Amino acid sequence: MRRFWWIFLAPLLAACVAGAGPLATSSPPAATPTSPVETSTPRPPAPSTPVATPSPQRPTSAAPEVTLTREPSVTATPEPQIEVPSEVPDVDVTMHSVPLDQVYFDTFQPVNRAVPLSQAPPELIERLLDAIPPIHEPKYGPATEATWLDDGDVVIGYVAGDQAWAYPLRILNFHEIVNDTLNGEPVLISYCPLCYSGIAYSRRLDDDVLTFGNTSALYESDMVMVDYQTGSYWWQVAGEAIVGPLTEEKLTVLPSATITWGEWRKLHPTTLVLSRDTGYARNYERDPFTEYAEIVNNGRFAFPVSEAGRDARLQPASQVLAVKVDGEARAYPVTELGRAAIMDTLGDQAIVVFTDPGSQTGAAYQPVAEGQSLTFEDRDGEFTDRETGSTWDLAGRAVSGPLQGAQLSAVPSKTSFWFAIIAAEPEITVYQVGAG
């Protein structure tokens, strides 16, 4: 049985914030892939080591002894089991849409830390598969039992039908991927802490349903996933296969929100919450990425980032809501915009974007309710439509006024640091403050 190792060095984060840790600012010389993953706890490499050195280190699957937290869990209507094949096909590197030497495996070692796919031996690829373990059998608990979460903690929220689910970043920092079937839809909840990219995708691809794992590789300093059915590699922020038989296929983005727990719970009091009972011993109380945005904004990326990801229109770690309609993409910088109701048009579709830096979120909707086109503004701190004077919440629901109880249709979006979005969507435009 494969044994995975968890590597977490809190002192490394502190050292990097202080400017002591060596980080990649350009593509490193190729590391020599002479050995597979070792089982010793790594040390930060010396400054002269010519490899990309992420900071903080991505938590892997081996952990120090921690008491496994058991907490009440509830299960909604039983859904189909997640298909996890006993073997994953080897990646077919003859088909790819990006240079193989720009896909880097994180070996979680103090030397040979970044190994390009073009040089990675099969045994290394095998050892690193799911070293950051995805969750295939998620358990959930009610919001009332999630007393371990603070209001300021961030979750990825997802709604289907009358039910809402919350996926705390405290857990996703250590797992990055959750495969589930929610309200009949095969869903992938994905999160890469190196680019703060929280995105929900459908796992349907044509007539097939895919199950996703983690390669431990990164492209543009963003997680590279693998589907267990074909062994294809997927660029998480782009939602696109970049290596293997499914190269250039794209996943369908589903509406989701990256939002504070306090705001999500207020919007969805009956939400279910991903349980810490994951089957893995992890210290979900700690967040190794607390100061990471500051490091990125200083131009110190965890893994190599191309010039496409260094677009200076926004700071690299600016949190953006990215919306794409009919091939036209736009980024809405949540913090810079403040609390706002933005009327915009993408493709031929009118949209409204609500932003609220206090809850660290933004959301996009079609501005139509009960057959009536609406125009929104932020009026005295309330999202208000001019036509009826109804007020609306971040979930796109009318909470007062003539339209009380109406629901706007969500437009799928992605939340991420700017550097990852611009790398995935090089033609994206940025909504400017005051443009509306």
Q: Could you walk me through the main structural features you see in this protein, from its secondary elements to its overall organization?
A:
With 436 residues, this protein is mainly beta. The protein has two domains: 10-267, no CATH class; 313-430, Rieske Iron-sulfur Protein, CATH 2.102.10. It contains seven helices and 31 strands. The strands form eight sheets. A six-stranded antiparallel β-sheet has the order 2-1-11-12-13-14, with no helix packed on it. Strands 3-17-5-4-16 form a five-stranded mixed β-sheet. A hairpin with a 2-residue loop joins β18 and β19 (328-333). The longest helix has 8 residues, at 10-17. The termini are far apart.
Q: Could you give a short account of the major beta sheet? A: 6 strands, antiparallel
| Biggest sheet: strand arrangement | 2-1-11-12-13-14
Taken together, the total number of domains comes to 2
What proportion of the residues form beta strands (DSSP E)? Answer: 25-35%
- Outline, from the CA principal axes? globular
Q: How large is the radius of gyration?
A: 21 Å
Strand segment count: 31
Helix count, DSSP H or I runs of 4 or more residues:
7
Question: What is the residue-averaged pLDDT?
Answer: 85
Span between N and C termini? 58 Å
Low-confidence stretches: 1-55, 62-73
SS-based class: mainly beta
Question: How much helical structure, as a percent, in the residues?
Answer: 10-25%
